[in-house]
Amino acid sequence: MTNQTVLITGASSGIGFELARCFARDQYRLVLSARPGADLQEAAQKLQQEFAGVQTIVIPADLSTHEGPVQLFEETQRQGLQIDILVNDAGFGEAGLFVETDLQKEMGIVHVNVLALMTLTKLFLREMVTRNSGKILQLGSVVSFLPNPRQAVYAATKAFVLSFSEALQHELKEMKSEVTMTILCPPATETDFFRVANAEDTKVGQSKKATPEEVAEGGYKGLLNGEARVLPTFGAKLNFASSALFSDSLLATMMNTQMQPEKE
């Protein structure tokens, strides 16, 4: 049992929802957030049915806008919620050659994956450092380590998450703060990601993937243990090892093959 509160973005489905299940199992108070129109209420009801007594608070927020992250923070303030754990899970991608993909969608990817994550981290980390307690889980990816043709913008945003979070980990250590930050780097996972990214027909989209349950469980345990980085599956560990063994040009070639349509 715990009296702590966790805020999870992207909580309506996929890894975010499975992380919510991990926290609900241990009776954290859940603040669930996702874009307006997402099935947040349905997600909250599922959690309440599965875990008796769990408290859920639903706060929709459009993180693809400049105002969205700030409004989410201000709403937690208005409700008097102390966020003990922040999970920056929200994110999406787009597949295809950069010269052919939609610029507006890619600007939204940068807003959600980079600017919203950075803003929420800034706002909640300040409070955590003042209290000298708290934890943050940042959703990176195995492509944080790999150049990824046909998914260039998404991979670049995940490289930002890795670099940004590792720099903050060093700052927290330098301050001798008790606040911890963990970077979760999953491989391709069986979520709605590939449909939203228009990548269902790619080789990786058609391949066997990690389950959101195993990814979330690994991230949850690593977060509570204060680990700096979590590679939750053997496939994730293999991707990371490849990034150290092979040149960027070879890695880009390999990743490009994975992102091509299966029929090719």
UniProtKB/TrEMBL annotation:
Name used for this protein in its record: SDR family oxidoreductase
InterPro entries, A to Z: NAD(P)-bd_dom_sf, Sc_DH/Rdtase_CS, SDR_fam
Keywords: Oxidoreductase
One Pfam entry name: adh_short
Similarity field: Belongs to the short-chain dehydrogenases/reductases (SDR) family.
Domain of life: Bacteria
One GO MF term attached to the UniProt entry: oxidoreductase activity
Keyword Zinc: no
GO cellular component: membrane
Keyword Oxidoreductase: yes
